[in-house]
Amino acid sequence: MPNLFGKKYTYRQLIQYIGDISQLGGLKHYELASGVGKGVGAVDFNTGTGFEFTVLLDRGMDISEARYNGQSLCWRSSTGDVAPAFFDPNGIGWLRSFFGGLVLTCGLDNVGPPCEDGQKQFGLHGRYTSIPASNIEIEQKWDCDEFVMSVEGQMRETSVFGMNLLLTREISAKLGESRLVIHDTIENQGYEKTPVMILYHCNFGFPLVDEHAELISPSIKVIPRDAAAEQGKDDYDKFQQPTQGYQEKVYFHQLQPDKAGYVKVALINKKRDLGVYLKYQKKQLPRFTQWKMLGQGIYVCGLEPGNCGVLGRAKEREAGTLEFLNPGEKKEIQLEIGVLTNQQDVRKFTNNIKKIK
């Protein structure tokens, strides 16, 4: 049953108060009308709790904006929402359309810097986010006493004489809940064993992230990527005010799952009694990267679960950690992202992580 305004309602009880579900929440489907994002299809989710987010259908069904009670939860870059026609796959051209957002998916052929693997050139973080969805289904309906909202679509990463991977994505949420679920299925529809790399680049920003924020994670080990990250590594979970000349820091975490196999991490801000968490199965996404960038205008903490690191496809192959899908094989992934909306939620989540560690 939807939990709205401090009370749970059955379907019959709730519909007596409203003329249409849009009075409380639901989906809105539209296209961006101007600028570099012109023509991009979008769907707004409103859960009725203050949690709202936007799915960009023509950008791999990634999530560009997210808010709770009007407060942004994610960092938004200066590029804004960019149509796939402007996507630059060469070198670091990916950054020209990196809108930040709650979730931007990296892959499927490369995650990390530009590299050469098997005499093939790969750009920064792959092409996935430039692929528009097809076979789109947008649905909102009552299921007994639950009002469920969902968007489903398919993104195909393919080329002649190359890979043929089909990613089917469903993003769902319920009225009365401050969380969403991404359910991805990646299928190798080609006839050769094919590498697959995927990383969920979740980008959190102000006002959730400020000098009062803290990363809560069941980290067994934290490894700095380079010399810049080595400096201040003991404060990987702490944050400061925007700093001129700040050098980005990247950390590789070894995380301890709970008894059910789930990894849970969160960014919390105790001063604001607010937090955002990620929850997923470690066997599906065994690697976790933290991106800490506290510069002026680029003030963000990225929490990035994936089946790979961020050093590039060639490095993954060298290390023997590159994942493959056989012809016809599928890989299932489910990622939950939710809001910790009060002091009690924040304290409960923090205590739960401490028990796991």
What series of H and E elements makes up the topology? EEHEEEEEEEEEEEEEEEEHEEEEEHEEH
**Helical residue percent band:** under 10%
Global shape: globular
Range of strand content:
35-45%
Distance between the termini: 34 Å
Count every helix, treating DSSP H or I runs of 4 or more residues as helices. 4
* Gyration radius over CA: 20 Å
Strand order of the largest sheet: 11-12-13-14-25-21-20-17
What is the averaged pLDDT score? 96
Class per helix and strand makeup = mainly beta
The biggest sheet, with number of strands, parallel, antiparallel or mixed sense and barrel status, is: 8 strands, antiparallel
What are the low-pLDDT stretches, counting only 5+ consecutive residues below 50? none
Number of strands: 25
Q: Tags for this entry?
A:
357 residues, mainly beta, eight-stranded antiparallel beta sheet, six-stranded antiparallel beta sheet, 4 helices, globular
Would you kindly provide a brief summary of this structure?
This protein is mainly β and 357 residues long.
Describe the protein:
This protein has 357 residues and is mainly β. The chain is 8% helix and 44% strand. It has four helices and 25 strands. The model has no long low-confidence stretch (mean pLDDT 96).
